[in-house]
Amino acid sequence: MTCSEFLQELTDYLDNTMDQRTRAELEDHLQWCHNCYVVCNTTKRTIEIYRDSQLFELPDDLRNRLRTAIIGKCKQHKANTEA
Amino acid sequence: MSNDDWLTEYFEAERGRLQSLAYRMLGSRGDAEDVVQDAFLKAFQNLGQFQGQSKFYTWLVRIAVNEALMRLRRRRPERMVSLDEDVKTEEDSMPREVADWSPNPEQLYSQAELKDILSKTVQGLPPGFRTVFVLRDVEGLSTEETAEALSLSVPAVKSRLLRARLQLRDRLNKFFKRRDGESKQ
Asked: Measured between beta carbons, which residues in chain A are less than 8 angstroms from residue B118?
């Protein structure tokens, strides 16, 4: 297996959505190719860091404002269609 | 419970996920707020068009993604922004630098610095890649759900996801790579 072939399979490898035989081939490649080992490991960390990040939590006041706006819009729409 | 009551309750339950998705796509809290409002209103108005063949959340995501893309287009009228915007060759996703990272790269920065780094890095991806990455890896939709929400094929989602992940990894390298003298894990 070449490094390019390894990279093409990386997503399925990280998501554990491949057959055992292909997985074994990839793991064999990882045993001796340090570059692919590092790329695989750091890509996995990239996903974990984003998944674990609470980056985009909105503050409570914004949540409440949004909630009020949504319910208001829905009520207004309902009133308009019933009028 | 009427459809309207049910929908309002459903919106309330899913609002957080939709807000996060819109914020990650647009990088602006104000725009994210508007997108979610508009998406919920459109869903409310078009409930009759929901076919029931997909999950309701996936249908809602599709509406929100379209709203966010329209907003991106308005921001950059000189360029067409679409999910078809793609990177021309495979090479641009190939790792440019292979360097191992520090054992706990998140701890190299303050919480505020880390937020800034992650936010700017993901915003630097092309919209078509960024959306797939956010839905699949951050929001936790399956590959099939992501494909359905974005009207893409499963192979297209997989291809974009791979390239998005590799590009993000490459861009984070400069912040997270092991420094000289740092011990291995």
From this structure: 49-50, 53, 55
